[in-house]
Structure formats: structure tokens, C-alpha cells
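Chain A, query sequence.
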Amino acid sequence: MTIAFPPLPYAEDALAPHISADTLATHHGKHHKAYIDKTNAAIEGTELADKSLEEIIHHAEGAGNKGLFNNSAQSWNHAFYWNSLSPRKTAPSGDLAAAIDRDFGSLDDLKKKLKETAVNHFASGWAWLVAKDGKLSVTDTHDAGTEVTAGIKPLLVIDVWEHAYYIDRKNLRPAYVDAVVDELLNWDFAAENLSRDGAWAYPG
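Chain A, predicted structure.
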């Protein structure tokens, strides 16, 4: 068994003008695919070959296998990121909206926290909205770091590696983050993740 390379959940030009088709072709078709290809090459012929991507990530982290962890975690993070974006404008409702008001005060306050965390994150990494112990919070992880951790439900993620925005925005990360948070975040996906019994699972 090999780890699948999932297609984008929308057309390459669906997020324009906020994220261009050129960026998605490079980011998904080259960067994400390379992480998956390297993961599959590393597990071929080993006891990990029939494991889920989540199991591979946890094994690599526990074994201190940094190369396998980086590639497997980045494979997961990117698939989750594509689903965290939507070409159709969405808004929180129901249980998610209530949890946001309870834990952040308002959606505007949550958006401000997400933007601050994503923009101020030093170097490469990810800004997350997660649920843990019945409470929502905003976190960040460095490099390939992931929130695929026992007891945590990732709800949304923002990629702040330069390859996520450099073709379109050069070094202007704040402009990219504003566009993602204000126009593209898939709040329906976040609501689905909040209501799941467990965390989102990598497809395939």
C-alpha cells in the first residue's frame, strides 16, 4: 500500500485572485507531491508500508526519524490545508459559532488571533485552529510540526511556508494571511471537524 496523493478539492484556479492557479499548481503539484513521494519511498518494503499516514507520523516522531517525520507530517498538513480553504465564502454557524463566541469573544477576535499568529510566526510553519479538552484555541507549529496529536482535533490550518504565497505575494505574508482568513477559510470544514468523534483522517 502507498500513501495516496489526493487531488485538490476544487479547480486550480478556484481560489483566484487570492491564491493563483500558478501557486496551486506549484504548491500542490510539486511540493505536496514531493512530500508524498518521499514518504512512500521511505516506507516501501518496511513494516510501515501498510500503515495509515497518521500511524507513520507517530512512528517517525517516536523513533526520532526526522526525515520520515518531515515528509509524512507535511503530506498530512498539506492535505488538511487544501480542505481548510474554500472558493465559496463560508461562515461559522451552530455549535462552531457558539464555541468561537465562548472561547474568543467573537469571530472578529478569532480572526485577529489567527492573523497575528500566522503573520508573526518566525520562518516556516503552520497556524492552527484546534479543539482540545472541549475548548478552542489558536496554535502554531514550526516547519513540519503538526497538530495530529492525541487529544487534539485540528479544525483549520494556514500554511505560512513561503512557497504558499511567494509566487503571488513575494515576501508580503500579511497580505496572503489577510486573504486566507477573510476570504478563503472553510468554516464548514471546521464545523465538520468539531463534530467528529475523532480527528480528521488523511484520505486514501
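Strands lie at 125-132, 135-142, 152-159. The chain has a mean pLDDT of 97.
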